[in-house]
Amino acid sequence: MRVLALLLAATLAGCALLRPDAGEVLQVQDIVGASVRAANAAPDEQRRRLTQGQKAFAVAPSDENRLRLGALLATLPAPWRDDTQAAGLLEPLAARRPDSPFAELARMLAVSIAERQKLALEVRAAELRVQAAELRSQTANLRAEAAERREAASTERADTLHRQVEALKAIERSILEREERRRKSQR
C-alpha cells in the first residue's frame, strides 16, 4: 500500500513537471465539485458551506479561497446567491491571471453572472413595461369613467333645465289664463 502511495505521489509530481498548472486543474475540479454539491445540498448545509468559504477567505485570501467563495456565491440558490459579491471576487482573479485554470473558471463564472444579471434586468424591464401598460389602461378607464360622469351630469343638468323651462311655461300659461279670465270678467 505504501509503495502504491509513493508511486501515485511520484506520478503526480511527474505530471506537475510536465504541466505546471496541474495543481490548479485539480483545485478547479475540487472547487467545481464542491460548488455543485453545495448547490444540491439542503439549505442549512448550503448556509454552512457558504459560512465556511467566507471564513476561509477572511483568514487566507488566496486565489483558491477567492475562487471557491466566488463559485459558491455564484452557484448557490437564493437566498445565499450574491452575484455582486461573486463578481467582485472573480473579476480581479480573471484579470490578474489570464492563462491559468483559476482565471478560466473565474471568467466562466463572471460571464454566467453577467448573463444572469442581464436577464434579471430584462425581466425587470418587461415587468415595468407591463406595469406601465396597466397604468395606461387604468388611466384610460378613469378617463372613461370621468367622461361618463360628465355626460351623466350634463344629462341631469339638461333634464333640470328642461323641467325648469316646462315649469316656467306652465307659470306663463297660468298667468296668461288668469289674465284672459280677468279680461273676460271685466267685459
Content-based structural category: mainly alpha
Biggest beta sheet attributes:
none
Ranges where pLDDT stays below 50 over 5 or more residues in a row are: 1-13
Mean pLDDT: 87
Work out the radius of gyration. Answer: 41 Å
Beta-strand fraction estimate: under 5%
Q: What is the helix fraction of residues, given as a range?
A: over 70%
Q: How many helices does DSSP assign? A: 6
Overall, the morphology is rod-shaped
User: Cα distance, first to last residue?
Assistant: 150 Å
DSSP E strands, number: 0
Order of helices and strands: HHHHHH
Task: Describe the protein's architecture and organization.
It is rod-shaped and about 135 Å long. Helix content is 89%, strand content 0%. It contains six helices and no strands. Residues 1-13 have low confidence and may be disordered. The chain is mostly helical. It has a domain at 25-118.
Write a compact overview of the structure shown.
This protein has about 190 residues and is mainly alpha-helical. The chain has helices at about 1-20, 20-40, 45-60, 65-75, 85-95, 100-185.
Describe the SSE topology.
Layout: H1 2-18, H2 22-40, H3 43-59, H4 63-75, H5 83-96, H6 101-186
